[in-house]
Amino acid sequence: MIAIHILLLHIALTNRPAPSHLPFQPVSSTRPYAFWQWRSARPYWAFVTYFFAALLVLHVLFSASPLFIPYTNLLGGIALTVEATLPLPQLLANYRRRGCKGFRPSVIVNWIIGDTFKMWFFFASSAGEVPWAFKICGIFQAVCDLGLGLQWWVWGDGPEGVEAGIEKAIKSPPPERTEDFEMREGAFREKAVGMGIDMGDGAGWERQRVGT
Q1: DSSP class of 158
Q2: Which of the following CATH numbers is that of domain 66-159: 2.160.20, 1.20.1280, 1.10.10, 3.30.70?
Q3: Beta-carbon contacts of residue 115 (< 8 Å; ≥ 6 apart)
């Protein structure tokens, strides 16, 4: 699982969109030290390395002390909370743009199926086998995933996708020059030449100057 997450991080950093700000202008960030919003990939890998080293040191220090159980309980609670709240940013982004553009329906379906099996395991197990912290976080995550499915069902890709489809449907090629139109255009040109007006390819005509 750790190896897969590292691979996914590499793919995300490699294929992330270019910054949209203008050149030579500072990047506006609402996070302290622009956390997880760095331009280059190096700070991401540096943070992951330091984070791993810090957890390893804490594990070694607390493993032989009475604080090991409270420490692991705290670490597990934080991990459960992070996992349960992962759908929240996607829910908020979909709500703001009233659509789920870029979010694959297959992901939502797989999440809902996974939540179904997970909740069945949590509540079908014997009493006391699964702590209530897992059940509470599992219920919260299942509700968030169902909310994502509801957003996709109601909004789809959102107004941007609908407008693009309408614009594509009403677009039509320019009218072709018919024979009747060409005959009328030729007659108009002959009449204009008889009046002394130059109807060439230019945008206008110039009146002859009278010498003094």
Answers
A1: -
A2: 1.20.1280
A3: 138, 141, 142, 145, 146
C-alpha span between 144 and 115 (Å, rounded): 10
Count CB-CB contacts under 10 A for residue 94: 23
Question: Which pTM was predicted?
Answer: 0.62
Q: What is the pLDDT of residues 73-127, one digit of tens each?
A: 999 999 999 989 989 999 999 999 999 988 888 988 998 899 999 999 999 988 8
For residue 77, the tally of other CB atoms under 10 A from its CB is: 13
Q: Which amino acid is at 123?
A: F
Closest CA to 133 of 86, 88, 79: 79
How far is CA 80 from each of CA 76, 77, 85, rounded to the nearest angstrom?
6, 5, 9
Question: Domain coordinates of the chain in residue numbers?
Answer: 1-13+31-64, 66-159
In this prediction, the residues of the chain whose per-residue pLDDT falls under 50 are 164, 166-170, 172, 199, 202-205, 212
Query: Is the C-alpha dihedral spanning 98, 103, 104, 108 positive or negative?
Result: negative
Q: What is the DSSP letter of 35?
A: T
Helix (H, G, I), strand (E, B) or coil at 84: helix
Residue 141 buriedness (CB in 10 A; 0-12 / 13-18 / 19+): buried
Which tokens go with 88? 């929240």
What residues contact residue 26 under an 8 Å CB cut-off, 6+ apart?
none
